[in-house]
Amino acid sequence: MDTIAAASHSRSTLNTMASLPYRVDPEQYHIYGHRRAVVVVALALVLFISALDSTIVSVALPVIGADFDDYSQASWIVTAYLITYTAFLPIVSKCTDIFGRRPVLVFSTLFFMLWSGACGGAKTMNQLIIFRALQGIGGSAIYSAVIVTISTIVPRIEIAKYTPMIGTVFAMSSVAGPLIGGAIVSHIHWGWIFFVNLPIGAIGTCFLLYGLKDPQQEPLSWNMIARRVDWIGSFLLLASSVLLSFALQVGGSTYPWISAEVLAPIVISVCLLPALVYFETRHPEPLIPLNLFNGRNYTLIVTFTLCLGAGFYTTTIFLPQRMEVVDLVSPITAGIRMLPQLLLTGLMSIVAGGIVVKTRRYRGIMWASASIGPIACGLLSILTAHTSFPQQYGFEALAGIAFGTTLPVSTIIVQFGTERSEIAAATGFQSFARQLGALIGIAADTAILNGVVTGRLNLLADNGGPLADPTLRGAILQNPAGLLGELDPASRAYVQNAYSSGFSKVFIFAAGCLAAGALATFGLLHEFPSELAADTQDAQKGDVEPDEVKSSDIESGRQLGVDGHRITVYTEKGDVESGKQLDVEEHKITDDTEKGDIESGKQLDVDEHKTADYTEKSDVELGKQLDVDEHNIADDTEKQVQSYSQAIDGIDDKNVSISLLQIASEPLHDQNSGGDIMPVDSVQGSSGSSSHLSTTLDSVA
Question: Using an 8 Å Cβ cutoff, are 232 and 200 in contact?
């Protein structure tokens, strides 16, 4: 009775899932050959322009502020982008499940390009800030859709090969952003830092339209969309994220931390969280499936990612600033001197993915790389105005190794440890945690830096001199690199030392965040999926090609395992979608199954050599049995089967052990007639199919 109840519940679940247009077998998303190469290039291009806009604008802020004669709001050009970018990450990830990968990715890229053009043509500072907020939505959508698409266009075992592309692209954008931005504002109008996205995005969109295909599904009705979208959860998460992001961005700079403008958004944001949890537990397709946090690994990885966001963005944002202020180099030179960290971040992303694929282990590499991060930031904190650059490059290299390894491996752990149907939501929330950690880290870093520098400048002001002017001290805090040249040598040296001390405190804070994240990784369980290990071993033995036999095929009931090998029985479309499967436990076929048994719906139980009553059709939908009622397997395949069975061992009157046998979806060749025997999925016969199968099995036996 328990089995029947469980089967009934599972059938109900499958029926519900079948009514959802894009809740399909993940294997149907897989693409191969040149189309996969085209799509991977397209994903890299669109992800590059999304990541580029996080770094390219920073060097242009003084020029933009001067052009609009409005320095006070220039920082909002970056803030507006970061707020919407962070808030929409989990929302867009869920949209890929509802509308499909291809539509969401193409629309996101076009949306991003539209508002990039609008930013480049903005006529006022307020226009630019609004357009940047809208552009941030597009950038967030691109990032989320790219991560989800990578995890579904390839078999699960190959995810680790492609996920490192994300870290590589981000490293490239971090290098290229300041260089391209500095070159543009030095020679042409600043608007081209946004216009440069248009040709790159256009090429990426064309590649996506050519190579990326979603499975054919029923059209979505507005009623279906309304039922599937978590409207309340989306609103609550968006409101909470925007309010918290706003408070973190303006706190300590635009408004004091102890002020209504900062505290009120934080309090409201926190109060919205219980309501979000309440509604997420009641929606059939929640934006954030709370059951994800029942998994130990996912909870620990999200915690680690939150800490990693704070540490990673501290080095990529504040280390170049330190070079400009303390070492008095130009933005372009600072970008070049960041190459050791950024290049190693990209290189180690590729190496780490290869190690995970080769060893099928991820705990050791996570422990080692997560431990290097706080050490690297601790070493950066001891830099002074007189530290040699080779020594600084060595510290940067350590940081690059740590970040380049942990960024992709943490994502791989989430993708391997999550059900395929929940990968979009799981990776979306992980990305949200990383961006939230970045916002928290940047806000804390800014508060620490300003606090240390303000204290030092106030001490010097008490002794008189040029820094006694409070207006000048405030201007130095807003634009230190631009004003240092106007100070006398003694005051300049004092300001440089003040900032050097402030940046040291910032890197100590980053080291603490990364240390907390490293502690979380020591609680990870090794949960490399067993079916992935089996598939990898089969591929290495040469039995099957990795792209030909995928774990998702086995899970969806598409293959018949016989003597360690797979006989693929392709039924017609409806049966394939239902995942029919004949499971032979002991890899033997006995002649106990007579024609009458199959016609009356009896199932061959090889494990105990007994026949069981055939269950109803709904059990077949669970992928447990092969329904032969609507199919026709001709008995003239007997010789073809025998011609492929070169390693038959132990033939007797009762059973046959078949090895090295595979029946693929292509037509079989009949040696007698010289013709082709059609694959099962093309056979439309109805009557007599059970008889044909029985005849075939009897003849083999």
Answer: no
Alpha helices per DSSP H over 623-671: 638-644
**Where are the extended beta strands (E) located within 631-696?**
655-657, 668-669, 676-677
Exposed, middle or buried: residue 541 (CB in 10 Å: 0-12, 13-18, 19+)? Answer: exposed
Provide the residue ranges of all domains of the chain, joining segments of one domain with +. 21-214, 229-284, 557-700
Least confident of 22-26, 409-413, 659-663: 659-663
Residue 260: C-alpha distances to residues 126, 255, 288, 491, 592 (Å): 23, 9, 30, 36, 81
> CA–CA separation, 316 vs 328, rounded Å?
18
Count Cβ neighbours within 10 Å for each residue of 245-261 and write b for 16 or more, e otherwise: bbbbbbbbbbeeeeeee
As a whole number, the mean pLDDT across the chain is: 72
Chain centroid to Cα 255, Å, comes to: 35
Please state, in angstroms and rounded to a whole number, the distance separating the CA atoms of residues 118 and 65: 17
- Asked whether 177 and 52 are in contact (CB, 8 A), the reply is yes
Predicted local distance difference test score (pLDDT) of residue 507: 94
What pLDDT is recorded for position 465?
64
Residues 6+ apart with CB under 8 A from 109: 46, 138, 142, 201, 204, 205, 208
Amino acid at position 644, single letter: Y
> What DSSP string runs through 258-291?
SSHHHHHHHHHHHHHHHHHHHHHTTSSS-SS-GG
Nearest-angstrom CA–CA distance, 507 and 315:
8
State the pLDDT at residue 321: 83
Q: Would you put residue 295 in left (φ > 0), alpha (ψ -120 to 50) or beta? A: beta
SS in 3 state form for 20-62? CCCCCCHHHHCCCHHHHHHHHHHHHHHHHHHHHCCCCCHHHHH
If you compute the radius of gyration of the chain from its CA atoms, what whole number of angstroms results?
30
The CB-based long-range contact list for 650-653 (8 Å cut-off, 24+ gap) reads 653/591
In whole angstroms, what is the distance from residue 569 CA to residue 668 CA? Answer: 12
- Section 473-496 average pLDDT: 78
Tokens (6 digits) for 387: 């530290």
pLDDT above 60 (res 70): yes
Q: What distance in Å separates the CA atoms of residue 210 and residue 223, rounded to the nearest whole number?
A: 30
In the CATH scheme, what is the code of domain 21-214?
A: 1.20.1250.20
Q: How confident is the model at residue 234 (pLDDT cuts 50, 70, 90)?
A: confident
CA distance 698 to 148: 47
Give the pLDDT score at 17. 39
**For residue 603, what is the enclosing H or E element?**
strand 602-605
